[in-house]
Amino acid sequence: MPSTIIRLATKDDAQGKGYVHYQSWIETYKDMIPDHYLMRHTLERTVQMAYEHPENTWIAIVDERIVGFSCFMKCPDEDLLDSGEIMAIYVLKDYQHQGIGQKLFDAARHSLSFYETIVLWTFEENDRAIKFYEKQGFHKDGKTKVVMERPAIRMMVDVKQKEEDEVKP
Q1: Which residues are 146's β-sheet partners?
Q2: I want to staple 61 with a disulfide (CB 3.0 to 4.6 A). Which of 5, 6, 70, 89 is the partner?
Q3: Confidence (pTM)
Q4: Those residues with Cβ within 8 angstroms of residue 79's Cβ, 6 or more apart along the chain or in another chain
Q5: Considering just the CA atoms, what is the radius of gyration of the chain in Å?
Q6: Among candidates 107, 113, 121, 57, which has minimal Cα distance to 82?
Q7: How does the average pLDDT of the chain come out, rounded?
Q8: Contact assessment for residue 103 and residue 115, using Cβ atoms and an 8 Å cutoff
Q9: What residue ranges define each of the domains in the chain, with the CATH number in brackets?
Q10: 167 pLDDT band (50/70/90 cuts)?
Q11: Shortest CA distance to 68 belongs to which of 47, 84, 51, 92?
């Protein structure tokens, strides 16, 4: 298995990151969200977004190709003012199940480790993602919202409690 490089993104990574964003949406959400959202999600648009917002983004590189990314930020949810949020983790389908998503998740989580709580949102029907996040110690907190006409759930982990649990014998 080729080695994976995880590093922070720059504007020079916009083409590769934009492609991963575009392609992984098609691979992941084609049966989950309405087609009119996917049709607006163009390669040109995702490359432009990547160019305009390289900050707070980790990228995964295999054989000099960007194959995944994760994004993180301060949580904007009004009920969690001292929290961080993992906004996105995407890995191209051909590179999944190789530990790349875990490395991107770990990088984003580490970047947010100074917060007491880390949250993320995922589609309620995205069982694969929910299982992955539960494996990382996240739990559903009961908050929901509608994203692209689909129900989304918020998941969270108490960073301090998780660290304490990991230290116990």
Answers
A1: 151
A2: 5
A3: 0.90
A4: 143
A5: 16
A6: 113
A7: 92
A8: no
A9: 4-120 (3.40.630.30)
A10: very low
A11: 92
